[in-house]
Amino acid sequence: MKKNFLYTACICATLLLSNCSVADRQGRDGSRDLEQIVRRGNVVYDMDELQTGHPHIPLLVSNGIVGGCFDHMGFQSRPNTGTPEGRTVFGYIGNYERNASSRQIQFPLAVISAGFADGSSVLNLMDSKNYRQELDIYTGILTTEYDLFGETKIQALAHQAYPNLFVMQIDRKAASPEKELVLKINCETSACQNRDFLWPVQPEKVSVRTEGNKAYITSTTNIATTEWIVDGDNPVTFKENILYIPLHKENNTVKIAVKRPDTPAPAELFDKSFAELKKSHEAVWADAWRKSWVDLPDDRAQKIWTRMKYYAVSHFPVIEEKPLIPTGLNGNIWGFTFPQDVYYVAENMPRLGFTDRSAKALDYWLHILPEVQKYTKRIMGVDGAFYPWTPPYTDWDSYEKDSVVGADSYELHNPAYVLAIAWHHYQRSGNKEDLQRYFPIIEEVSRFYVDISEPNAKGTYDVYHDNSRGQDEASTTDGKLRNLLCASYSAEYALRTYLEAAALLNAGDAALLSRAKEIYAKGYDREPLLRPEGWYATYLGDTRPAGMQKHPVQLNPIAYLPMPEHVYEGAPAVKAWQHRYQLTDEANKPITLGWTIGEFALASCRMRDAAAVEKDLSAIQLCRGADPRWIQFYESSFWEGWHLSKSYYFPMMALYLQMYTDALVQDWRGYVDLFPCLLEGWGKDKFSFHGIHVKDGAIIDGRWDNGKFEVTILPGASAAIELMVTPETGTIRAEGQKEGPATFKSGEKVTLAFKDAKPIRLSN
Q: What is the spatial distance between Cα 66 and Cα 163, in angstroms, rounded to a whole number?
């Protein structure tokens, strides 16, 4: 009880503090308040919308611990993967099983459906009147309304302050007793998992005890046990793995709570009314939107940015937990976590002000570090931290005990992304205590790269491991690949980061630091990788013709592990970016595998080329790469439609969120770049933004009006900020600085010193 009290107190204190200082930041263009700005991204279905020919995309309600997608009637009638919508299921992050390969697969905890008391189906849109469904991304609540033999209103939320809690409020006025709704919760979901997936699971053992309005369920797999409780607000019965809850009242609250030691006990939550729970949930979301927002001039950009931020926050909970799988708790295709994919989403969190959630996510990577070190020694035969391609949930000793699950387990570039999550969290927060806490991740990942770095006859270093596998998964899987480009970039970035972090903290293993300094100073041998076209091959001996890659790893120093020293006129990385559509298989069609076109767009934005960004955005094939309303992206983009079951692919969405943020403010070159990539039409329009965090934790707000702009910079941990305004805007005035020029020109880099904790203001 003490832990629960402290947990609740911390949440409340956070909300009170954050609610005090943001009123002046809302709607700075004078036309819209914050709620209106955010709700431009809401998703609304009505009968007219459903007549457009676009399919109903199930709408996501999640907090990273519990949640799922919902069908057009407000339930989950489609638990099997379909095209193009994917699954409607209820997920819990801790419901997983170990399959024969030793891989641990997350699969749904339940499926929530409904029917009428007379046995007829609620899936009856044609007899419904006044139909409307809306996902309000400002409050994180899905509301479905219709009159079907009685007025019905269903509200669903995955609670943000109590992340083990899911709530549905069903208000219903039945026209007759036989048309009362009966809620059905299927507690055993292996059948829907096995129907469509390459990774089958065994049936769960489901034990249920019902007491009046409550059902106490224990779901057991061959490796995990989940205890959860359903409070039905009406008498609950159980038969053949299904809970039945007749909704006799006009107002019915259904609560699903998972028992966890780090969250409030279900009994404490069940005592709270729906109104109380809704209010505390909405308060957290309101605070999340006050932290950061954009009000962009074109509809596509606004919808992508706001919805992608909603998805990112929905998967980074306020407690520590294993990070999201690429398609989230709906479980479309992937049932396990990839560090690289997590990084694409995690990169947005500290940039948009969520350093608290970013730290909770980092705690997971820190706490599994001892297991990762043992895994590295067992699988790779070296010291340090080689974070697995698909980390298990638990029982590390049995994971890949006899052999790896596939050649991808040897992707050498992978651990650098965990290091980057830690380092970029520090860069955007300026919090040295956090850097100290997560320094072991940086050090042990660097130790791994030092141990697979070999001196060569030229006096430089090679990256090598007998079983090495590259980020470009279309390359050979035979191992023995020397100087994999992705691995050498990852190693160089890791060592550079380690040396800088160790100097900041006056910390580190002296022997390891000495070796890291030597390797970093002498560099990795990439000269033999240089192709006649001017860019690097993916590994020594890669003689494939251009256009054979799956992923454009040559762009990593621009898009993923930023190393601006590799980005100059004529550099191989720049040549590769200029000819990016020649790198990967059939990209000009455009056909892409995975997140390739997302990386294209992010790289083009960072190269400040708005026309290139527009080209890359046009490669998103509607109905093949994204749905036409910009609700979701798919993992790949094909002319064939089979891949559409891989919907809600959050890594791809996260790359576009990064890209649109970087169009406004970016700092990957080591200094802050304002308005660096204004897309078509933006320069002669109005837009505004708030809460973009940059190096050392400075926070930037801005407003643009047809070439005139105002920018406010709140200080972070640093005494000064180095910045530049990219577009030609005439003379720029600076006010409020302690030191630095009062005026400067576009394209001129200047350093401005903060005066105590006061903001610096720029305008033209």
A: 7
CA distance 710 to 728: 14
Counting residues of the chain whose pLDDT is more than 70, the rounded percentage is 96
**pLDDT tens profile 706-737:** 999 999 999 999 999 999 999 999 999 999 99
Distance from C-alpha of 615 to C-alpha of 46, rounded to nearest angstrom: 33
Torsion of CA 24, 27, 30, 31, to 10 degrees: -160
Closest Cα partner for 511 from 446, 464, 564? 446
CA-based nearest residue to 685, from 675, 694, 672: 675
Residue 5 has pLDDT above 90, yes or no: no
Distances in Å between the Cα of 703 and the Cα atoms of 30, 286, 542, 700, 764 are 11, 21, 48, 10, 11
Q: What is the pTM of this model?
A: 0.95
DSSP, residue by residue, 492-513: HHHHHHHHHHHHHHT-S-HHHH
- Phi and psi at residue 161, in whole multiples of 5°? -85, -30
The CA-atom distances, in angstroms, between 249 and each of 171, 172, 277 are 8, 7, 19
Task: Tell me which amino acid residue 344 is.
Answer: Y
For 309-355, what is the HEC assignment? HHHHHHHCCCCCCCCCCCCHHHCCCCCCCCHHHHHHHHCHHHHCCCH
Q: Which two tokens stand for residue 151?
A: 């007025």
DSSP at 709:
E
3-state secondary structure of 557: helix
Question: Which residues contact residue 475 at a Cβ distance below 8 angstroms, ignoring those fewer than 6 apart?
Answer: 481, 538, 539, 542, 544, 549
Q: Do the beta carbons of residue 305 and residue 40 sit within 8 Å?
A: no
What is the per-residue DSSP string for 512-530? HHHHHHHHHHH-B--GGGB
Dihedral of the alpha carbons of 625, 627, 630, 635, in degrees to the nearest 10: -40
Write out the DSSP string of 612-673.
Answer: HHHHHHHTS-BTTTB-TTSS-B-SSB-SSSGGGGS---HHHHHHHHHHHHHHHEE-TTSSEE
- Which residues in 114-149 are b (16+ Cβ under 10 Å) and which e? bbbbeeeebeeeeebeebebbbbbbbbbbbbbbebb
Q: Which residues pair with 710 in a beta bridge?
A: 703, 763
State the Cα angle at 17 between 15 and 21, rounded to 5°.
110
> Do 155 and 143 contact (CB within 8 A), yes or no?
yes
SS3 92: strand
C-alpha of 396 from chain center: 25
Tokens of 92: 């819990």
Residue among 539, 551, 410 at smallest CA distance from 483: 539
DSSP string, 19-58: TSS-GGGS-TTSS--HHHHHHTT-EEEETTGGGSSPPPPP
Please name the residues in contact with 526: beta carbons below 8 A apart, sequence gap of 6 or more.
483, 485, 488, 536, 572
Per the CB < 8 A criterion, the answer to whether 387 and 490 are in contact is: no
Neighbouring CB atoms inside 10 A of 298's CB total: 14
Helix (H) or strand (E) holding 360, with range, is: helix 355-367
Place of tokens 């279900």: 266
What pLDDT score was predicted for residue 211?
97
Question: With DSSP H G I counted as helix, E B as strand and the rest as coil, what are the percentages for the chain, rounded to 5?
Answer: 35, 25, 40
Among residues 723, 733, 731, 721, the alpha carbon closest in space to that of 758 is found at 721
Strands 129-136, 43-46: pairing kind = antiparallel
pLDDT band (50, 70, 90) for residue 6: very low
Q: How many Å is the maximal CA-CA distance in the chain?
A: 86
Among the listed residues 62, 51, 619, the one whose alpha carbon sits nearest the alpha carbon of residue 285: 62
Residues 41-57 have a mean pLDDT of 94
